[in-house]
Amino acid sequence: MEIAPDTHMGLVELSVSDLERSLAYWQDAIGLRLLSRENGAVELGADTPLVRLVAEPGVRSAQGFTGLFHVALLVPDRRSLGRFFAHTAREQIPLTGLSDHVVSEAIYLRDPDYHGIEVYADRPREQWEGRVSQTMTTIPLDTDSLLAEAGDAGFDGLPDGTTVGHVHLCVRDVDEMVGFYRDKLGLALMAQGGQQAAFLSAGGYHHHLGGNTWETRGAPPAPEGTARLLRFTIVLPNAAEMERVAERIGGTEVRDPSGNPLVLAVA
Questions:
Q1: Residues with Cβ < 8 Å from 82, sequence gap 6 or more?
Q2: CB 261: neighbour CB atoms within 10 A?
Q3: Which helix (H) or strand (E) holds 248?
Q4: Cα–Cα distance, 28 to 30 (Å, whole number)
Q5: If pLDDT is split at 50, 70 and 90, which confidence band does 1 have?
Q6: Is the CB of residue 117 less than 8 Å from the CB of residue 70?
Q7: Given the DSSP bridges, would you call strands 139-140 and 97-100 parallel, antiparallel or unpaired?
Q8: pLDDT greater than 90 at residue 262
Q9: Report field, pTM of the whole predicted structure over 0.90
């Protein structure tokens, strides 16, 4: 049985080696606001918490282990994405990619601990709904058009309404991932690239969850002592739906077959 169509992604929690350095990056480079701070952890977001950073001084990069590929911050419109892009150009913030996926336009970065970040805006849903597997691809981003969309407005952070649009995981096996997130959790498989990547969603969205084996086929989970994904949240519309899904996957806080930790929450 498929998961409720209004299921969406929630807070993503990461460990970091230097909390002050990471806090500065996520505020100044990404444009999130500090919403709370206590006991060696901070929550950042726009109008709602999106990312929680937990201090684990001195941890090393988790590259090569399963875990987070990127957390994707969905801005409300293309103009907001253009303003963010203009900000990265003006402040000379290093980028790791610029992509037009046809279903969306995306800007990629990495924080000081190598956590992947995507800031993106969706194309109108009517342009891709029902045709995600045929439509979603990767082509060069039209940066001139995106900058023109920004106009002369400055950047004072990611706007209210920014959400965690999707979470992309590093997994050890794609079929195993699909078997868990589709056959147990109840997401729909929207697109799959053989044994390399898969994209799943609720309610016909292009993807709420991605996973790839590009650097982690057969890899173990990121161990303690690494800057790693501590958990990501799947938000369900009500307690009854959470109970139903929890029964299928074995609880409200579980690990997927690649060891990636997820938690179920209620909107």
A1: 146, 147, 148, 149, 150, 151
A2: 16
A3: helix 239-249
A4: 6
A5: confident
A6: yes
A7: antiparallel
A8: yes
A9: yes
